Amino acid sequence: MRTAPFASLRSLFAITDEQAMWRVQTQDDETAFAQLVRRWEGPIQRLCLRMTGDLHRGEDLAQEAFTRVFAKRKEYQPSGKFSTWLWRIALNLCYDELRRRQRREETSLDGMCGETMAALEAFVAPEPAPDKSLVEQERSELVRKALMQLSETYRTVLVLRHYENLKFREIGDVLEVPEGTVKSRMAEALTQMNRILKPILAGESTKNSMKSDGQTVESVML
Amino acid sequence: MNHPSREEWMSYLYDELNADQSANLKAHLHTCPDCKSKVNEWQAARSGLDEWRVPKKRGRVLLAQPMVKWAAAAAIVLSIGVGIGRLTSAPPDVQQVRAAIEPEMRQELRREFAQLFRDQLDKSASTTLAASTEQTRQLLAEFARVVEAKRTEDYQAINAVLDKLQSQRLADFFSLKKDVDTMAVLTESGFRRAQQQLVQLADYTQPANSSNSPQH
Predict the structure, then answer these.
(1) How far is A38 from chain B (nearest CA, A)?
(2) Which of A21, A117, B108, B162 is most buried, judging by how many CB atoms fall within 10 Å of its CB?
(3) What is the pTM of this model?
(4) What pLDDT does A107 receive?
């Protein structure tokens, strides 16, 4: 039975994030750092993708996040969780990216700027998973676009709580706001999300149910 | 009626309440249509969010070129203080590393791995630095060449114009000289003829003098 590569080596290194980070800080321990990267590259990639709506840009940002963690390793304070610090670094990179995009759009002299951006958005949409039906892909894309319509503030709490499963208190630590604030932002975010999604997804499902007359279509999840 | 706050509803929806609290809120939903409709909306939004699926992880994007890429980048960030960007570096032979480590689990293997990585890191970092310096040098040399070439071009162009002007001027000069000379020649010969004619005239007006030799 073939185990995952480096499984045996990995068990040697089953240390906590904070222990690993301590080794990185004090000894420049690259092995410990690799451990952290392996553990967190998935979540950070997903965060950057969902915040920017762009798969490839998301990957770039995730890479930058870890580079920055290593570059600033001396600045990490062990009094807090490593992941809190990491989320914050990644989020700030996402905010910078979004700000850059906004400036580009504002300084664009193209009168059809909004449509251009929308076309670009569609172009950089994440590659759909090959095993997903066309309907699911379309709906997935609709939700992606809907999320991009929210303000950064609301999108952040949505992504962290709903997709990355952080507790409200943890999100409060990352964003350095009270837990109550996080929850009220969440409520507002969900309200807005519902408002945006309801007509879109309902329309889609109606369209598809109409198509089903005499044709085989994938069943639509409502 | 005491309605739960929306913050409490968020905790409820995301399962952050204990069993009792949760039961209380659930009971409230049975009796309060306003809260029920709000919670339904939030629940619908949550279901919608679930429809945006992304890959759990995009392969080993970050460790495709293990650690070397980001560590070299970090080293350069620290030493040069330039913005973080993409770097290209020769990927270390991963298969070789795996073959060496996989069979057994030993302390030596751990050290070996760390050392191998360190070597790769040093090599890649210095190669990258050297490459970027070399590239910068080449770019500067190219730039200097272009500037020099442009300057030479200008010189040549200016010289060509000057040459043309000069030869034009010379041509004009000679042409003028020729004209002047011609005129001088013509004038000279005109004088002489006039003189000859005068002399001849003088001869005719002295018939008494049989001798041609002039009287001194």
Answers:
(1) 8
(2) A21
(3) 0.58
(4) 76
What mean pLDDT is predicted for residues A156-164? 98
Contacts of A127 (CB under 8 A, 6+ apart): A55
H and E: helices and strands count for chain A:
10, 0
pLDDT tens across B103-159, in order? 555 566 667 767 777 777 677 666 666 666 777 777 777 777 777 777 777 777 777
- Across chain B, the runs of DSSP E, i.e. the strands, are none
Which is higher by pLDDT, A201 or A22? A22
What would the two tokens of residue B134 be?
A: 């070399």
The structure tokens 């032979």 sit at B93
Alpha-carbon gap, residue B18 to B12, rounded angstroms: 9
Q: How far apart are CA A38 and CA A14, in angstroms?
A: 12
User: How close, in Å, is residue B40 to chain A by CA atoms?
Assistant: 10
Could you report the per-residue pLDDT of B34-56, keeping only the tens digit for each? 999 999 999 999 999 999 988 87
d(CA B123, CA B72): 10
Distance from CA of A192 to the nearest CA of B (A): 9
Q: Do B6 and A184 touch (CB under 8 A)?
A: yes
Across the interface, of A37, A45, A167, the residue whose CB is closest to B63 is A37
SS3 (DSSP) at A132: coil
Residue to mutate among A67, A162, A196, A197, with most B CBs inside 10 A, is: A67
